[in-house]
């Protein structure tokens, strides 16, 4: 199942891991996009724990400060175990680092430049999350 919003495509890349990818390469994302993403996460996760992969590797997308604040909170009915940001730009790395250090997201967030490393990390975080719930 794939959910497409005004600026994003959101889909299960594998069981319990949801991928978010911009459909407009240079879009600016705002709180409405964050709300769209939260609704899609709930629909795709179905109440089960999930992890997310934000794939901005091939984009020049930007995020408003309001969305960064929104993204640091908990807005999902389904529990989110972790968030990986896949990027290849120094600018995106600096912005992600600023987001993590300034807003202290409620979900552990880490950036990667290799997709397989990001997925391995997310799989591990899901296992840790599920082990903590037993």
Structural write-up:
- This protein has one domain: Rossmann fold, CATH 3.40.50.
- It contains four helices and eight strands.
- With 134 residues, it is of the alpha/beta class.
- 32% of the residues are buried.
- Helix 3 links the parallel strand 7 and strand 8 (109-112).
- It is globular, with a radius of gyration of 14 Å.
- Helix 1 (31-45) packs parallel to helix 2 (65-72).
- A six-stranded mixed sheet has the order 1-2-3-5-7-8, sandwiched between helices. The chain has a two-stranded parallel sheet with strand order 4-6.
- It has helices spanning 31-45, 65-72, 90-103, 115-132; strands at 2-4, 8-14, 17-22, 28-29, 50-55, 62-63, 80-86, 109-112.
What distinguishing features does this structure have?
single chain; 134 residues; Rossmann fold; two-stranded parallel ribbon; globular
| Shape category | globular
**Cα radius of gyration in angstroms:** 14 Å
Query: What is the beta-strand fraction?
Result: 25-35%
Overall pLDDT confidence: 84
Biggest sheet, strands in spatial order? 1-2-3-5-7-8
- The CATH homologous superfamily is termed SpoIIaa-like domains
CATH topology: Rossmann fold
Q: How would you sum up the major sheet?
A: 6 strands, mixed
* SSE series: EEEEHEEHEHEH
Highest-level CATH class: Alpha Beta
- What's the helix count? 4
**CA-CA gap between termini:** 29 Å
CATH architecture: 3-Layer(aba) Sandwich
* Helix content estimate: 40-55%
| SSE class | alpha/beta
Show unreliable segments.
none
How many structural units, i.e. domains?
Answer: 1
Tell me how many strands there are.
8
